[in-house]
Write a structure and sequence with these properties.
The complex is a heterodimer.
Chain A lengths: L7 H4 L2 E9 L22 E6 L12 H6 L5 E6 L18 H13 L3 E2 L2 E2 L2 E4 L9 E15 L2 E12 L3 E6 L2 E5 L6 E7 L6 H17 L10 E8 L6 E6 L5 H24 L3 E2 L3 E2 L10 H8 L3 E8 L8 E3 L2 E2 H11 L6 E2 L10 H10 L7 E7 L1 H20 L4 E5 L5 E5 L7 E3 L19 H12 L3 H9 L3 H9 L4 H17 L9 H12 L8 H10 L5 H7 L7 H14 L1 H7 L4 H12 L5 H15 L1
Helix pairs in contact in A: 4-5, 7-9, 10-11, 11-13, 14-15, 15-16, 17-19, 17-20, 19-20
Chain B lengths: L5 E6 L2 E7 L7 E6 L4 E5 L4 E6 L16 E4 L7 E6 L6 E3 L6 E3 L3 H7 L8 E6 L10 H16 L4 E5 L5 H11 E2 L4 E4 L12 H13 L5 E6 L6 E6 L3 E3 L8 E3 L6 E4 H7 L10 E3 L12 E2 L7 E5 L17 E6 L10 H9 L3 E6 L12 H9 L2 E2 L5 H14 L3 H4 L17
Parallel strand pairs in B: 7-10, 7-11, 11-13, 13-14, 21-22, 22-23, 23-24
Antiparallel strand pairs in B: 1-2, 1-5, 2-3, 3-4, 6-10, 8-9, 12-20, 14-15, 15-18, 16-17, 18-19
């Protein structure tokens, strides 16, 4: 199956994107807490809560929400010295954070959107515990925007400004533990229209939106700070929402593979209909496997489990058909069985295998009245799970006869997807009465320079080469670079420290994330004032990464680079020349390059190369 | 165009369809869009097409029927608990179209809002008032006390009073003085409104009903004991105070541990079928047991009592208005002091027949006016020391004492309903 073989236009591919981006504001959206993430070990108090979703005549909970809320599940929240009562749902929210509003409006403007006259904060019911309140605060800020791609425009339907949920730490017996550090970080959600027609266009649109977001200089960077959902359907398929795509580079592949999956499922459905296929009743087939050598089945039976089976009439050969790399129709059945607690399923298209013998397969077919044209799927687990899981698999098999099911799927690292849950219903929303409406002033929006424009400017004005210009502009230290240049630091020097040097140090396992912006600026200033040689920058940054509490000046001392004046430099160089007097006498200036290396090694960055070179020339000159 | 109409609004090239909400102002039309979001659109810049009128009936017809009694039974053998509403949001529902929060009052309404109450008891629902608790009045305390009295007389095994939290402590104190009760009378409310899944209403209501089924026949206040949903505290109605503006565990007993704590999960599970959840409740002190006291109501009040706080720099003229008061509670500094220049004014009031009682803004500890000259002068002027009575409780007590006891001045110096402790025992 070559995915490149698809004619997307003929298949009627329709895709859309939903992009969630955390903003890098000083404070959270509805309180004065910083937007910094913490380690769970740093938590200094915990609280436990229950959520009680109430039903009113209009507030019926939808299936997806109910599936999330198991009765009496306890939620534990880790609080920090950087979180407050608002995150704990023990104090009313503040008004909407002004900085977050400004950034969101900037983004809306970059996306060519209309900004809503009056923003109303809504409460969107979320009862999985990820919000202490039981709802997520969200407001519709922008409408009717558009971006351009090489394959045509893509509409931007809406831009929401909302609060990020709490980070799930782990599940424990009877509950789920969440961390409050992330709760309330401003988040923009950008939804495109269903205008995307090819995998490449999906990736290009996502990249374009990503570039616009980063151009603000006020979005969070790093793992988990941007999440992309991709909606994909083909004409004969169904709308599938793919959650949690972390890497932009994966988006085209995910769309490609989803088109492949839907189109294979459509083929399978056609074939099943042609065969007049059907799904029989599930039943207990434990006796077939009483003496099995299969480790999986034998293990389950040994623990008091049962084997349940469902005959899939007319399915022979199709259950094992590949629909995505390493995923078959059988895998889809298996996903549903897994959602109900089983380890997975076996099916006759892959048997005999896994210790299941020919004779057992024949006996299994016999037991459920399945012939050669039929397939059988089985589950081995504790009795309750075995029943639930085989029913779920059977239900999925029924759907296979009809075609592609609408659902929410989870992206895997390989670019394939697996079943996650049913599509969510319309969000249940009501006004957040604790926060007054906001009337934003679009005339105050300060549209930032785009990163693409920055790359050009860095090349033209600062004379950076194109590679370095792009690295800096798209890098996370871009604002720092601009600040450094603003205070008169040589752009090429600043860029190469912030990109090349930092990358080098990171490769040497130096914890560069510990180096504060102020430290970089101080180091730049010291170099500019000739207090530190460029050659010493690596060592000083290394010290600052290890001991972030030091000042840059103290780090110079700590690195052993301090206190060398011109006199000492000359002394050291004269010493080197003296030691190599014979060579100097013999080669004259020819000895320069060899001795230069020796001098630099001895000075270890205490003096810059130009000075050393000048003095060395003089010292050699004296002797020749 | 009216609230409830479905409209199409064009504004600056953007078109929106939705239902007009009552929150619209003269400047902005507020629309609920199909996706659920509300947005405000500049009225002047918008052109509106009404697509359909009265799509939703937006009018609020949720006005309760004052005084109505509703009943809901789960089984003959279950205890009967009266649920009395005075307003507040412990049982309210939200209209997801408009966001309007409506307080609910009948027993069925309360059970619908807090389904966890079902099966624990048979319920009688009764509405005394539908007010914000900051609008509470002494006349409503009287109506409330009468309603509770009638409910107990009608056979209620316990009473739960649902009350806004702002002035809950005053109402609890009022009922403590007005009623002698053979069954528990438990006040409860919520610090987070019932329209949110995280509301404390469920745990508070369940715990209050379990306290009302239990053995302690006093006027109690039942609210969260910590920021977690782990246990509620039972406070004596005369010793409790709201000490935080927003936290779930805002209420604290002053000068001691709460009378008892209720482990929520144990109470919820043990009491679910109507049994008493005794294992869930831990008492820290002696209490009046069920049936020990005969039911009696003394609901007369003299509302002409003022509570005044002395602060440095205050204008003495601020106390001019006290001339008409029959009673004055002073919230003094420290051991019970005011500026010495105000003492003649106090003497004047006492000489005119006003009962003046001294409490302390320290809240913790008791008044003692025999230590310093100021205090001795105040005693000479005729004030009565209210011991460690909380200032708010002292106000309610004096209203009651003026109407019910022969010598209110003397009564202010001794305990009538657990409001004034005999001795100061360290407790922290």
């Amino acid at each position: 199956m070559s995915s490149d073989a698809y004619d997307y236009e003929a298949l009627g591919l329709i895709a859309g994107l939903e992009i969630h981006q955390q903003l890098d504001t000083e404070t959270k959206l509805f309180c004065e807490s910083p937007t910094d993430l913490r380690e769970p070990e740093e938590s200094d108090r915990t609280i436990t809560r229950f959520l009680h979703p109430t039903k009113s005549e209009l507030g019926e909970l939808d299936d997806a929400a109910l599936e999330e809320s198991r009765v009496d599940r306890e939620f534990e929240y880790l609080a920090y010295d950087s979180t407050c009562l608002v995150e704990e749902d023990d104090e009313p929210p503040t008004e909407v954070d002004g900085e977050a509003l400004d950034v969101a409006m900037q983004i809306a403007s970059l996306l060519d959107m209309e900004i809503v006259d009056q923003l109303h904060v809504m409460r969107k019911l979320v009862i999985d515990g990820s919000n202490t309140s039981g709802f997520q605060r969200s407001m519709l800020l922008g409408q009717e925007g558009e971006i351009q791609t090489s394959e045509g425009p893509v509409s931007i339907v809406d831009l929401l400004l909302e609060e990020e949920s709490a980070q799930r730490v782990e599940e424990y017996d009877g509950g789920v533990r969440y961390s409050l550090d992330r709760l309330g970080i401003p988040l923009v959600e950008i939804g495109t229209g269903p205008d995307i027609r090819s995998p490449e266009q999906a990736k290009e649109a996502a990249k374009r939106i990503g570039m616009l977001l980063r151009s603000t200089g006020t979005v969070k960077r790093g793992l988990g700070t941007i999440r992309q959902d991709v909606n994909v359907s083909i004409e004969e398929g169904a709308r599938v929402e793919i959650k949690g795509v972390q890497a932009l580079d994966q988006i085209d592949e995910i769309v490609r593979l989803e088109v492949g999956r839907q189109s294979e499922l459509v083929d399978i459905a056609e074939e099943l209909q042609a065969r007049d296929a059907s799904v029989g009743d599930t039943q207990d087939v434990t006796t077939v496997f009483e003496d099995t050598d299969s480790g999986v089945i034998g293990g389950a039976l040994g623990d008091g489990g049962t084997v349940t089976a469902v005959p899939l009439y007319g399915f022979d050969g199709l259950v094992g058909r590949e629909i995505q790399p390493d995923r078959r129709l059988g895998t889809e059945l298996s996903d549903h069985a897994k959602r109900n607690g089983a380890g997975g399923i076996f099916h006759t298209d892959e048997l005999p295998a896994y210790g299941v013998t020919d004779e057992e397969v024949a006996a299994l077919r016999d037991a459920v009245d399945a012939g050669d044209d039929d397939a059988v799927a089985i589950v081995a687990a504790d009795p309750e799970t075995a029943d639930l899981a085989i029913e779920a698999a059977a239900e999925r098999a029924e759907t296979a006869i009809e075609g592609v099911p609408e659902e929410t799927r989870d992206a895997t690292d390989e670019g394939t997807t697996r079943y996650l849950r049913p599509l969510p219903g319309a969000a249940r929303m009501y006004p957040e009465t604790d926060v007054p409406p906001v009337e934003p002033d679009p005339s105050e929006i300060d549209e930032p320079e785009l990163l693409t424009e920055k790359v050009d400017r860095y090349q033209e004005v600062f004379d950076l080469d194109s590679g370095l210009a792009e690295q800096v502009a798209y890098g996370r230290r871009m604002p720092l670079f601009e600040e450094a240049v603003d205070r008169g630091i040589d752009p090429t020097f600043a860029a190469s420290v912030l990109e090349s040097t930092v990358t080098e140090l990171r490769r040497d396992d130096v914890a560069v994330e510990n180096i504060a912006d102020a430290h970089f600026l101080a180091v730049f200033d010291l170099v500019a004032d000739d207090e530190l040689a460029k050659e010493g920058v690596n060592d000083v940054l290394t010290v600052l990464a290890e001991q972030p509490d030091l000042t840059a000046e103290a780090a110079i001392e700590e690195a052993g680079l301090g206190g060398v004046d011109d006199e000492e430099v000359r002394e050291i160089i004269a010493g080197v020349v003296e030691r190599n007097a014979d060579q100097v006498a013999e080669e004259g200036m020819g000895a320069f390059s060899g001795l230069m290396g020796e001098c630099m090694a001895e000075l270890r960055g205490k003096a810059d190369g130009d000075t050393v070179s000048d003095v060395l020339r003089e010292e050699i000159g004296k002797r020749s | 165009m009216n609230p409830g109409d479905r409209v199409r609004v064009e504004r600056g090239g953007t078109t929106n369809e939705g239902v007009v909400l009552p929150s619209s102002t003269s400047d902005h039309i507020v629309l609920k869009l199909d996706g659920g979001y509300n947005i405000g659109i500049d009225r002047e810049a918008a052109s509106v097409d009404v697509l359909e009128t009265d799509v939703h009936d937006i009018d609020d017809d949720g006005e309760p029927d004052d005084g109505a009694v509703s009943e809901i039974e789960f089984g003959d053998e279950l205890p009967t608990i009266s649920l009395i509403s005075t307003g507040g949001t412990i049982a309210s529902t939200v209209d997801y179209r408009t966001g309007a929060v409506t307080a609910q009052f009948t027993a069925e309404d309360v059970l619908r809002a807090v389904p966890e109450l079902a099966g624990r008891a048979n319920y009688r629902g009764r509405v005394v008032a539908n007010i914000l608790s900051e609008n509470m009045e002494p006349t409503i305390w009287q109506e409330l006390a009468t309603a509770v009295y009638e409910e107990i007389e009608a056979g209620a095994d316990g009473v739960v009073v649902m009350h806004g939290t702002d002035t809950m402590q005053y109402s609890a104190a009022a009922l403590s003085f007005m009623l002698n009760t053979p069954v528990p009378i438990v006040f409860t409310g919520s610090q987070r409104s019932a329209d949110r899944p995280s509301s404390d209403n469920v745990m508070n209501a369940v715990s209050a009903v379990e306290a009302a089924k239990a053995d302690c026949a006093e006027v109690l206040l039942c609210m969260h004991a910590s920021a977690s949903d782990d246990r509620c505290a039972l406070h004596r109605g005369t010793r409790v105070r709201k000490n935080h503006t927003s936290r779930r565990d805002a209420f604290e007993t002053i000068g001691n541990k709460p009378l008892a704590t209720i482990e929520y999960e144990t109470a919820r599970d043990d009491g679910a079928d109507g049994d008493a959840a005794d294992d869930a409740i831990t008492f820290n002190r002696e209490y009046a047991a069920r049936g020990e006291t005969d039911l009696a109501l003394s609901d007369d009040l003299n509302p002409a009592v003022e509570l005044v706080k002395f602060t440095p720099g205050m204008d003495p003229a601020a106390w001019d208005y006290l001339d008409d008061a029959d009673g004055v509670i002073i919230e003094g500094t420290g051991l019970g002091h005011i500026h010495t220049e105000l003492i003649p004014r106090v003497k004047e009031l006492v000489d005119n027949g006003t009962v003046v009682a001294m409490t302390s803004q320290c809240l913790e500890g008791r008044v003692c006016d025999r230590v310093y000259d100021t205090g001795r002068d105040l005693l000479d002027a005729g004030i009565v020391e209210a011991g460690d009575t909380l200032p708010g409780t002292a106000k309610v007590k004096l209203m009651w004492a003026l109407a019910n006891v022969g010598n209110p001045t003397e009564a202010m110096g001794r305990s009538l309903a657990g409001e004034l402790t005999e001795e100061s025992q360290p407790w922290q």
